[in-house]
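DM from R.C. (forwarded with permission)

"hey, sorry to bug you on a friday — could you get me a structure for this? deadline for the figure draft is monday and I only need the backbone to look sensible"
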Amino acid sequence: MKTAILKGAALLFVMVGCEAEAPAISREARTELTETALRAEKALERSGDGAEAPACRRSERVIYACNFGDRKVAVCANDNRLSYRFGDARRTDLEIDSRAGHVRAHTGGVVGGGGGRQEHIRFSNNGYQYIVHSMVAGNLTDVPGKRISGVTVVHGETGASPIVRTLDCPQTGAHQSMDAFNTLPAGTFTPETDETWQAWW
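My reply, with the result:
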């Protein structure tokens, strides 16, 4: 598919540029061919950067990513945007973008008595909160040092609002850890100020 698009785009560019070989082509036809070639090139770029599935694109950093069975979650960042994406392997059903002037992401965390800790990024969208969280179990638990992550969906504006869905990530690894909040783009998030969000999710 990609090869066919690329060959088609190249052929159209050649046709547009070879006026000597096709002197009868009109200016309108050349313009239409050029626009078609540009659309084909853009389609090729999109097909290669994961735009359809909830994944981070080549120009973005992976903040968090997990496959929850047939569903996927990705939190991605570039220099001026932080994005939450949810969907299946074929398409993104929900995307929440947070950027300067329209901040929809909030960061927080808690620390336990045994050294355990949890960080989270909460994305707000139409009265729902999508809380992506990552924790390390402390020494007072049965699994000290174990990493656990997932997504909790809350319907409401405070941490005391009802939980409507919880997804536990079956994977562990670098993409399920959110230790470094300093990698988030400046201006795209705010620290949690409501203590009800400072909880173990």
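R.C.: lifesaver. The chain has two domains: 2-48, 61-197.
me: no worries. Residues 2-48 form one domain.
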